Predict the 3D structure of the following.
Amino acid sequence: MPDADELVANALAAVRGTDVRQAERQLDQLMVGTGAADGTSAVDAALLRRLVRALGRLWPRGWQPVDVDRITSRRLDARAARLVREAMAAQRREQAEPIPAWWDDQLRELTAEVRDDGHDVLAAWTAAEGLDRTDALRAAVDTLALVESLPPIAVLRPPPGTTGALTARSAGTTRSGSPMLDRVRALLAKAESTTFPAEAEALTGKAQELIARHSIDEALLAAGSERGDVPGGVRLSTDTPYAGAKALLVQEVAAANRCEAVWSDDLGFATVLGWPADLVAVELLYTSLLVQATAAMLRGRAERRSGSGRRTKVWDESFLNAFALRIGERLRAATEAATDAADQASAATAGAERLLPVLAARGEAVRERLDTLFPGVTRHRLSVRDAEGWSSGTSAADRASLDVGGGRKQPRQVPGRPDRR
C-alpha cells in the first residue's frame, strides 16, 4: 500500500492531467488512506506538509501572503482561500528568521492565526467549512495544485529569512498609524458615501491636498539625507469584471503620483513601483476612485435611454475607460501646477536646493527599478467600443474633480495604454 506522501503525489498528478476518471480514482485512494489505523490522519498531515512546503517556496519567488490569498480566491473560491490562510499560519512556524513586521501584519489581516504543533489544520478547516471528507480532499488537492503551479513574480520586498528582511522600509503600506493618513482615509470614506457631487469633490480634493503635501515633504527630507533607499512597490487588485479598465485607472493614478505601473492581467493585479509616500497616495486614491467610478457607472447605466440597443458590458467598459483617462488628464494638469508652486517656494527658502531636480532624480530611480524588475513589458492599446459610454464616463470624471497637488512630474507611460506582462 502506498504511503501518504505517495498518495498525495498520485492525486496531484491525476488532477493535473486530463483523465477525469483517473483523478477520481486517485481521490478514492486518498479517501481510503494508507490502510493503517491512522491512515486518514497521515493523509491529512501529508497534504498539509506539502502545501506548507509549496508556500515556503513561493516567498523567495516574489509572492506575499496577500498575493497568494488573492489569486486563490480568484482562481478557486473563498473556501480554498481560507485553507491557504490556515496553511500560511502553519508555515509561519517554520519560517527562518528574520521575519519582517509587515509579513506578520499581512497574516493578521488575513485572520490567519499561528496554531500549535498539535493542531489538525485540515480536519479543523473541513469541519469549519461543513464539508464531507470527499469534498474536503478534492478542494485540498486543487488548492495544492494551484499553489505549486504559481510562477515567479517580481520580488518587491525581501522575504522572511533573507538579508534585508528587517531593515527594508515598509513601502506602500497604508495601514500606518499616521494621523495624516487616518485623516485622508476618513475624508475619502465620506467622499465615497455622499450622494452630493460637490461634497465628494471637496472631500476628495482635501484628501489629495494632504497626500501631496506629505509627498513633497518626504521628497525634500530624503534629498537632504544619506539614506540608501530604493523605490518599493505594491500590488493592487484588477480582478474581473472590467479588469482592463481597472488596470488603466491604476496606471493613471500611478503616473500622476510619479509612480510606474505594470499590469499582470493573467494574475489579476497591477504592480505599482514608486517611493513610499507616493505608493500610499496611489493605493488610497485608486481604492477610493474605483468605488466612486463604479457608483457613477451604475447611476449612468440607470439613466441610459431605453432601447439604445447597446450591450451593458460594452457600455460599462467604455464608461470606466473614459473615467480613468479623464481622471489622469486632470491629475496631470493639477500636478504641473502644484509642482511649479512648490518649486517656487523651495527656491525662495532653500536657495540652490530646488524641488524639480529632486523630483527628477526620484523619478529616474523609479524608472530604473521598473527596468530591473520588468525588463520585458509591452504596451496594450486601448479600444473604444461605445461612444455613449465613453461620453458618460468622461463627464463623470469631470464631476469627480480630482486635484492632487504635490510636485508630480510628467509620467513616461502613454495615457490609455496600461503596461501589461
